[in-house]
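TL;DR need structure tokens for one chain.
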Amino acid sequence: MKKYLLFALPFVLSACSSDMLFPKTGNTIVTNPASEKVVLSSKTGTLVGDRVNTYKNELNGIRGEMNKVSTNLSKVRESALATSKKYYEIIAEMETKLSLGTTPSNPKMVALYNNAQNALQDSDLQSADLNNLVAEVSALGANSGVLAQNIKATYAVPGALDVDHDNLRVLENGTEQTAVSLKNLLNEISADANAQKAFTDNARLQLLRLNDAVARGNFNSAGATVAPAFSAPKAPIARTPLNAPSGKDALVKINFADENVDYIQSLESSVSNALKTNPNTKFLVKAMNPSNKKLSKDEAKKYAAQVFADMIALGVEPQKINLAAGQDSLLTSPHVFVYTR
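>> reply
TL;DR here they are.
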């Protein structure tokens, strides 16, 4: 019996936490060696001692705000992960249905499209949150710089005790550590913000392309090809793909003489090995009908859409899969060939 994976779409992005199919928001929150409160010796009653106490409170305040930013960054990343995962699941479902073909402006497809739009709006909000965090960390960095200058200048103030200067050195080291942590944090958030913007910009282009396909009910129009949402400029199903590889070059060959053909294990093994060799590998799924058989022109395309969905369920990024279709007089049943590109 064939092992179907069509309904595994909720787990489409099971591997996305490392490669980030959704916005690439970094791997870990920066470790803050300067995140703990500074504790100094008891007050000395000198002018320098009073300033030391003020500087200590300022430094602890900066560190406290830095910790809040780190916590908020974790929350934004978690939210962005959920949003992008939801977005790609919706798009994968739309891609599969449009590859098969459906009715023009199908209400279910329109609803999916609207859900994708809503996910994109959530992503915009997350972009705004990241930009706000960038502003917050930049301000903390500026405050840290001013504090470092004040501490250094205080060494010259007369009337200090030895313990006052000891405390100043503790504060100076602590401020330097904090500045490094803030710089690292700013770099991470800035990278996240840039990646998030790239994701939302790309998603808008995807939805623009899908809008036309949903209106038609498929990716093709009067023999012309239309760029799919995940792979411009090639169409998911081209009627006469240029430079299409031959069957003998296929990574996986599936003969659908029987609808219950079991191909999942072979598909999973071949795709996994290809991605291990080159994580950036792209795939072509080609539907082939016998040219001398009276079969529906969509017979092989139906199976190709099934393989397309199965590959997504196995963790392949949708934008790395193109679909094509053709005929072969040597075939006696519908076939699907999977190639690497």
